[in-house]
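SAMPLE LOG
Freezer: B-3
Tube label: C17
Construct: single chain, 513 aa
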Amino acid sequence: MSQTDAVLTTESAAELATARAENRDELVATFVETNPDYYRGQFKKIGATAKFSWTFNLMAALLGPIWYGMRSLWKWALPFTILETFGVIQIARGLFGDLGAGARERIDQIQGTLDFRYQQLQAAIDREADNVDVFRRTIDSLETAIADIQAEAVAAEANAFSIALFGFAFLAIVKLIEGVIANPALENRFSEWLSNRSLRHGLSPLRNAISIGFVLLIFSACIVHYAFPGAVGWLSAFPTDQSIRLTGIQWVEAFFNFVRDTGERVFESISYGIRVVLDALEVLFVKTPWPVIASFIILITWLSAGVSGAVASACFLAYMGLFGFWEKAMTTLALLGTAACISIVLGIPLGLFCARRPRVYAVIRPIMDFMQTMPSFVFMIPVIAFFSVGKPAAVITTMIFGGTPVVRLTVLGMRGVPESIREAAIAYGASKWYLLTKVDLPLAAPSILAGVNQTIMLSLAMVVVASLIGAKGLGEDVLEALQYSSVGQGILAGFAILFCAMILNRIVQGKRD
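STRUCTURE (predicted):
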């Protein structure tokens, strides 16, 4: 390359670098909209080093969370709002608050008791009763308590200046942090915006109004509530009417009564079906001689998990038998088996159906979220209303709590099957049934088996809760131990439940990690 070409190449590179710099400056101006020259310099300083660059944004320090909200930096705005609110509350309490109000309320309560004791003392003196000294000692104790609380109130009021000073210092530190973090946070937002122009940038009247209104609402409500307690009653208690709650209760009860009366045949049919499966499993596990069941369980564990799993299952079964939990453990397994079998039989096909139909799964998923997040004691109420108490109701409660993982993980496993493999099978003429049984299910099997395992484990976790509505088994022993504070019985029964879970886990999971 000649010297002339080298000079031209250098000049072209310089022109390209200049063009890029000018383009970046324009992008920064478009992103920030206000004071672009300042932010160009700050962003350039921050980008020049991989370490944290110390800069200070005065406007961010002054406005605090309002500035962060206006810039769509809500992950910083919310914690800074909490911190500044804490500091502002301390300042307001120290300067304007009645720090002794709580102590005086306690004094008024004790004073009422003290007046009553004085009346009792006078009545005892008039009757020349034997317990005059008792009343006098009680009165002396109450008067001492009042004196101590009065001293506490005086000390609290004397600390008002210290509290306000602490609030000012805390707020100043928060403001300093806000000013230091502002520019790096905004530069990081700018980098994200460069790759995704749909992100909000600049300033907008709506976002400014939301940020200002939110912060001022938090500040004003907290200051009034903590610095002037009781000044605005509806800040302490939500303004409501008791009739709203009573009307809601009546509507819910009317709805459940209507559903129960209308679907009585349906609920009876469901209970009958559950009872048939449950009775069959109870005959299998409970009525069959224990050596047969023990040998069967040990053999299955050996085939699935190997010798070590079989030895562990034998030890667990021996524990249940020696401590007298055999029959209750088998009853628990029958109840658990009924709930788990029905959940699996219904859950896997439903998961397969939802895996290829996103719209259906979008409807099913919120229902499953509701089933898993609703406390078990709450959804027991409608179950009891429709199915009464007893083992069918316990099975349905267990299914509601433990039936969702098999559906979720079946969908996850089916969606995890590589499309390239499915396309190759289709290209070679695979039918839908062949594609499902020879491609999808084998590849999704680990996830599906994990869902089956989770369903069994969650169902076993409901053993104690299900005993509240008539389910027998090991949960009944744990419930009795809780009621009568029988530590030994509860621990032994708890270990029996644990061993049942471990046996089932080894059978389902086998040697797979």
